[in-house]
Amino acid sequence: MKHKYSEQTFSYFSEVFNWLPLGCVLGGKVFIVHGGLFSRDDVTLDELRALNRNREPPEEGLMSEMLWSDPQPQPGRSPSKRGVGLSFGPDVTQSFLERNGLKLVVRSHEVKVRATLSRRCAAPRAPRSAAQRPRPGSAVHWPPAACSPRPPH
């Protein structure tokens, strides 16, 4: 950006980025975040709301994990392939949701071949990967009743 515009424009974009929310809760039931969940089991929404957002994301901690953690199919936690954040299983997702009175996690960082990762953690599917060309993005629309997962058949 510095090469295309100016140092001042880059500075403005950086400042705006530092004020963007890290996530949100939709309808009191859906946790929407760029990355994923956490290395600790006791994280609450109040703790996330108290984070100092006006800064560059650190290499570790809650802010970094919200930006870079990824779901995994097996239970528990594992080191992240990207070297920052971690991989978290469906049990970690379920525990976070129960502790915070939520029903669903929606994350957007990494496109998956199948959009739904589990009944409690979903990732919207974009039509092309970034390696092929820039993605136009994707959107999720669901009625409020869809926020209540159904038991498997």
Explain the overall architecture.
Helices cover about 25% and strands about 15% of the residues. It has helices at about 5-20, 45-50, 60-70, 90-100; strands at about 25, 30-35, 70, 75-80, 85-90, 105, 120. The chain has a four-stranded mixed β-sheet. It has a three-stranded mixed β-sheet with strand order 3-5-4. It starts with 6 loop residues before the first helix and ends in a 31-residue tail after the last strand.
Beginning-to-end CA distance, first to last residue: 51 Å
Across the major sheet, the strand order is 1-2-6-7
Helical percent range? 10-25%
> Which structural category do the helix and sheet elements fall into?
alpha/beta
Q: Largest sheet, if any?
A: 4 strands, mixed
What is the average per-residue confidence, as pLDDT, rounded to a whole number?
81
Give the CA-based shape: globular
Strand content of the residues, in percent? 5-15%
**Which ranges are low-confidence, i.e. pLDDT below 50, for 5 or more consecutive residues?**
none
- Helices, by number, come to 4
Order of helices and strands: HEEHHEEEHEE
The radius of gyration computed from the alpha-carbon positions, rounded to a whole number of angstroms, is 16 Å
Number of strands: 7
